[in-house]
Design a protein that fits this description.
heterodimer, A: 2 domains, 5-stranded parallel β-sheet, elongated, B: Rossmann fold, two-stranded antiparallel sheet, binds flavin-adenine dinucleotide
């Protein structure tokens, strides 16, 4: 049977998270359909049709889907889910918002944030801030699953040529309305997809320092910026910089933890990084227990020095 | 406006859990348990709505073993009015939790239901969304700001890449994110007062809800530990190691 992947997009561009989710879907079936739900999202459907492994793209185009409101997305997905053995979405804030709603409408359970596919009904997912990996088996007729995108490698060969067909868009629920979005404009790579991440913690001590100390290093490395919860709570960095159990999960080639102590909730978001570099003035800081390379010292002198040495 | 808040008893966030030697489950015997931190934020938000004159009554609900009463008492001490315990020793998965909460909502008829965005033990991040589906309510998940005006709720949500603001109609489900508020410290007199507040006890059978799990845990394991690396003495040494040893630069 086939598997349905829900596309992540902004009505213009197909997001890389979709390709990673397709990679997980291909471990379940070779017949992969992608649902593109949005408004005036034809370009996204065309991009999805080229994705490797995709056999069919289904497009639901309507005003009620322009902002992927959970009420409308839930109804749409629940309406077609039973044609599939599994429905997968990326574990982004979008997928986490609508997929449990769709699953419950079908009276089915959901498996969150999987990091491996063992078989068509058995998946591995982290629990307790990543301190434990649970292997769970689903007995439901349709497996609803969200996918931790950093755990799967995208095939971006664009070797597909799937057919595109329309599905009826749903009517608006009338219960929710999009008002506005404040999206940060970044001229640097996206945090979850970056090859290098420079993250700052409470030690940065102000929003100005966060910017003036970390940005030059990040610029030099072409890195994304991240932060600990403490730095976000204190207003040094925007909300969506937060790396950790309750923020974003990253797995770059190099992760710089700068003035971050290494609480388990933070480690949950970055311990799959290939190489971890820690800069901390406390040689006992727990971050050094996971860091490949550590420097003990004052970040305000070390970071500028490092930037110059690169 | 009546507000219902779901509070879960979880392993305290400072505890590092261990897997049982037979790999069947995590070992949570004799570890410290607390209210899920996101649920403290949910209770705090409800109490603030009441203090602002927007909420009339706050009912807290917890599902699980007898000791969930302690979690309910904590919420009562923060300012909730009364508690409901749906008592069961069964393991509850999010769909079952959502069904039980819906049964309580059918009885209580709240206008606003507040949950945490995720429980820090199982990290599922599903229950609020499922509950919204089952009740037919709109949902405002990962909320960092909530405003009630008349029959409408304006919710600002923490999403990838920024913030999104939605307007949803009541009755509605909200799930809390970290920046919604900072929960208050509980004062001793409030702990004493909470002891006198009523807690009603129900069971899944009395609510006519089938809580049979749909997912079975095949095994649990600890992930391969990262070995601690080395400390380097200088920036020059770090750069040299990243270039020649780790080969990532
Ligand atoms: C429910 C819940 C969810 C959470 N989710 C997350 C999450 O997703 N992500 C997350 O990060 N946290 C999360 N936390 C918070 C987590 O427990 C820690 O409080 C947080 O990670 C600490 O941030 P920090 O390391 O920046 O601050 P601190 O722990 O205060 O560490 C600051 C570090 O900077 C060092 N330092 C100070 N000055 C200097 C200097 N001049 N030069 C060099 N080093 C210096 C100190 O030695 C210290 O190690 C969560 C907590 C809870 C309860
Ligand atoms: C190692 C392990 C093995 C397990 N094995 C099984 C198993 O074999 N079978 C099984 O059925 N379950 C099992 N569970 C438990 C079960 O998976 C979780 O308790 C369930 O999935 C709830 O997920 P969550 O709390 O993360 O939900 P979330 O959706 O993350 O919770 C969000 C919010 O929902 C509300 N909420 C959730 N639960 C309650 C509650 N009990 N009372 C009040 N409010 C609540 C809270 O407001 C909470 O903030 C296991 C758990 C672990 C860790």
């Amino acid at each position: 049977m086939s598997v349905l992947v829900i596309a992540e997009h902004d009505n213009h561009q197909l997001k890389a998270a979709t390709l990673k989710t397709i990679a997980a879907a291909r471990k379940i079936s070779s017949d992969i359909h992608v649902l593109v739900a949005g408004h005036q999202c034809g370009a996204v459907a065309e991009a999805a049709a080229k994705a490797a492994g995709v056999t069919k793209v289904r497009v639901a185009d309507g005003e009620a889907l322009a902002h992927q409101l959970a009420e409308n997305m839930g109804t749409l997905i629940a309406g077609i889910a039973k044609e599939y053995e599994a429905v997968l979405a990326p574990a982004t804030t979008a997928g986490k918002n609508y997929l449990p709603r769709a699953a419950a409408l079908c009276d089915m359970a959901m498996v969150s944030d999987i990091v491996a596919v063992e078989s068509a009904d058995t998946f591995v997912r982290p629990i307790y801030a990543g301190n434990v990996l649970a292997t769970v088996k689903s007995s439901d007729a349709v497996k609803f699953v969200t996918v931790r995108t950093t755990a799967f490698d995208a095939d971006d060969s664009n070797s597909g040529s799937a057919a595109i067909e329309a599905v009826a868009a749903v009517a608006d629920s009338g219960k929710s309305r999009f008002i506005s979005a404040e999206m940060a404009k970044y001229d640097r790579p996206e945090l979850t997809a970056a090859r290098v991440v420079v993250s700052g913690g409470r030690a940065l001590a102000s929003a100005d320092n966060f910017k003036s100390v970390l940005t030059p290093l990040a610029d030099k490395l072409g890195a994304a910026l991240g932060a600990s919860r403490a730095a976000v709570d204190a207003g040094y960095a925007p909300n969506d910089y937060q790396v950790g159990q309750t923020g974003k999960v990253v797995a770059p080639d190099i992760y710089f933890a700068i003035g971050i102590s290494g609480a388990i909730q933070h480690l949950a978001g970055m311990s799959s990084s290939k190489v971890i570099v820690a800069i901390n003035k406390d040689e006992e800081a727990p971050i050094f227990q996971v860091a490949d390379y550590g420097i003990v010292g004052d970040l305000f002198t070390i970071v500028p020095e490092l930037e110059k040495a690169l | 406006m009546k507000v219902l808040v779901a509070v879960k008893r979880v392993v305290d966030y400072n505890v590092k859990v261990r897997v049982k030697t037979d790999g069947s489950d995590v070992d949570i015997a004799n570890v410290k348990m607390s209210m899920n931190p996101f649920d403290e934020i949910a209770v705090e938000e409800a109490v603030r709505l009441k203090e602002a004159g927007k909420a009339s009554e706050i009912v807290v609900v917890s599902l699980g073993v007898t000791q969930c009463q302690e979690t309910i008492r904590t919420a009562l001490a923060m300012g909730a009015d009364r508690g409901v315990l749906v008592e069961t020793d069964a393991t509850l998965q999010p769909l079952a939790v959502a069904k039980l909460l819906k049964a309580v909502i059918d009885k209580e008829q709240p206008q606003l239901v507040i949950l945490g965005k995720q429980a820090i033990d199982d990290d599922a991040n599903q229950t609020g969304q499922m509950l919204a589906a089952l009740t037919g309510f709109p949902q405002g998940t990962f909320a960092s700001k909530v405003d009630v005006a008349g029959n409408e709720l304006t919710v600002t949500r923490e999403i990838d890449g920024g913030l999104e603001t939605l307007q949803i109609s009541l009755p509605a489900v909200i799930t809390t994110d970290l920046r919604l508020n900072e929960p208050r410290f509980i004062k001793l007199p409030n702990i004493m007062a909470a002891k006198k507040k009523p807690i009603e006890t129900l069971t899944p059978a009395a609510l006519n809800v089938d809580v049979t799990p749909r997912l079975t845990v095949v095994k649990v394991a600890e992930p391969a530990a990262r070995a601690a690396g080395k400390k380097v003495a200088s920036v020059a040494e770090l750069v040299e190691k990243l270039r020649t040893e780790a080969k990532v630069l």
